[in-house]
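Schema walk-through. Below, the input block comes first and the output block second. Nothing else is stored per chain. Lengths vary across the set, and this one has 156 residues.
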Amino acid sequence: MMKQMQKGFTLIELMIVVAIIGILAAVAIPAYQDYIIKAKLSKVVTSVDSVKLAYASYFQENGGFVTGGFGSSWTSLGFVAAGPTLTNEISSITDTVSTASVGKFVVTLTNIKAASPAIDTSTVTFTTTPVQGDTVMKWVATCSLTDNLLKKAFGC
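--- output ---
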């Protein structure tokens, strides 16, 4: 008589596969969540770049910024009266503290990280003090919250 061959997997083999999948998931899920946050912050950086460009253009054309800020006069920068288009990750962009020689606006974040509500209400302040005739306008970012992901995204 011939021996019948085993078909299928043993219980121990299935348990090993489940354990391996569990270990991979334990490592992958936190990394995935960080990538989601990085992607959202990258979206904010891209949105803010258009505002920086508008400030630079205005400064170059007019030799200074609007004293008192653009807050109620976004049209001066080429935006609609309501201001720049906000993404889901930005609750507001305000400029109420610019002077003729210093450009400054504040971005308030939202919908970034559900696990840490503090980052969702944090602000990033962008300040520049350009020199007439320079080819580069340097911006300094100041974050209201000390967070490694914010530091990497904005250089706070």
